Amino acid sequence: MSKEKITQEELLNVIKIWKECDKSRVKTAEVLGIGNSSLAYRLELARSQGLLALESDPVIEEKPDPPFWIKDLPDEELPIEEIIDLLKNQETQFQASWLMTHLVENKPSILKETHIKQLVKILETTSHEGLERNIWRSLNFVEIPSKIHENLINIAFDKLENHKTAIAIQVFAMSVLEKILVNQTELQLALKAILELKLEQQPSAGLKSRALKIIHKINLNHDTAF
Description:
- With 226 residues, this protein is mainly α.
- It folds into two domains: 8-56, Arc Repressor Mutant, subunit A (Orthogonal Bundle); 75-221, Alpha Horseshoe (Leucine-rich Repeat Variant), CATH 1.25.10.
- 64% of the residues lie in helices and 0% in strands.
- The model is unreliable at 54-65 (pLDDT under 50).
């Protein structure tokens, strides 16, 4: 099968978001919404076209995903309570959040309502970018109880309206909003307005990719021209 045709502009966008993600391939692929192999192909294509020098790519060592057998373990055998407790300790919170997000990705059912409430409470107070990013990423994999929606919606909108918020956090926050604003017409249109403004003021490649997809879905939902 032949590879898709990728324009130079698209490659430059990939390089830009790759650098914004501190040259982490895993983070870059997540923000762009593509697979690791697709990202690797784009970076290699960029090099072949002279857009990316070999010496500019010190590949960041990525921690491996948790073993596949996690999916087969009963929820009670996965230490989610202990992990969430570690999120509240400054010395362990980032490592614990990394482990949590990969556990939740493989087995979303381990996050119960009480756990999600604790994560939202942490989001209200934390200033640790890595911790915050991993919590927002985790929330993308689970069904969020309706009684938590209002508080989480407020936090997510605050993050999107703050231009100092890291791009990856904004991307995960807007994805959570897209999921929990179903059937909430006014808030969906408010999200659309914010994303359109961000596309003008903060045209990051990763943000642009996800924002355009969400705007398109909102337009389809409301039967308006894109």
